[in-house]
Amino acid sequence: MQRMLKNQGKEVINMAHTVKNFDRLIGLDGFSEKLLKQHFSLYQGYCNKLNEIEEKLSTADRTTANYSFGEFSELKRRETVAFNGTYLHELYFENLGPTLLTPDGALSEALKRDFGTLQAWEKDMRACALSTPGWVLLTHNWVDSKLHHYILYEHHIGLPVHQKPLLAIDCWEHAFMLDYGTAKAEYLNAFFKNLNWNVVEDRFARVLKHLK
Ligand SMILES: [Fe+2]
To answer: Which regions of 72-200 does DSSP assign to beta strands (E)?
Structure first.
């Protein structure tokens, strides 16, 4: 959806961020409908806030910018929270879904190259998930061309630059408490059982195209 915004006095066209529908996930084994619907609402909230922040930034007074407090400064500090809160959730919902596939071909080889075995890769990712109340990402690192796991706090703290996210696990309590209480390891069992490798392989294939 296009909208007109004023940026420092000038009118510019901006694209509003739009919420995607992930209702196809309802019925997924190990994820209750109630939990998923609440999770979709949270994601929608981040997307709405992102649009609100961008709109307010277009007219916010730059002359009051200040480390302690200022409207422009505060909006900039929270912009990344809303942006990552929106697009990390999309990565996560997209890489969930019924699948019988295990990683194949180039992705499987890269995981074995950088983690030793697929079992070692999963063990590492589970350990990362137990280490953060935020997110775990499997990324392609453009610096060393290897696959890495990185953990994020909140939505925006801890991600190194030069990364292409391939797989995301939401480790916030809202992603599992309703169904599993504090048994996060059981939530991870459900996550790995429903990991859609097709999507992860597609993301990695796009990386490989750039490397050629
Ligand atoms: Fe979430």
So the answer is: 135-141, 146-152, 163-170
**CA 64 / ligand 1 centre spacing (Å):** 33
Distance 160 CA to ligand 1 centre (A): 20
* Ligand 1 centre distance from Cα of residue 89 (Å): 6
pLDDT at 5 > cutoff 60: no
Tell me if residue 14 falls in helix, strand or coil. strand
Written as one letter, the residue type at 10 is: K
Q: If you measure from the C-alpha of residue 91 to the centroid of ligand 1, how many angstroms do you get, rounded to a whole number?
A: 11
> What are the DSSP E strand ranges found in 53-145?
135-141
Do 88 and 168 contact (CB within 8 A), yes or no?
yes
Angle between helical axes of 33-59 and 71-94 (0-180°, round to 10):
150
Ligand 1 center–CA 63 separation, angstroms: 35
What local confidence, expressed as pLDDT, does residue 67 receive? 95
Q: Which CATH class is domain 105-211?
A: alpha beta
pLDDT tens for residues 84-111?
999 999 999 999 997 767 888 899 999 9
Q: How far is the CA of 43 from the centre of ligand 1 (A)?
A: 7
* Distance from Cα 34 to the centre of ligand 1, integer Å: 14
Domain boundaries for CATH 3.55.40.20 within the chain: 105-211
Query: What is the rounded CA–CA span in Å between residue 139 and residue 169?
Result: 12
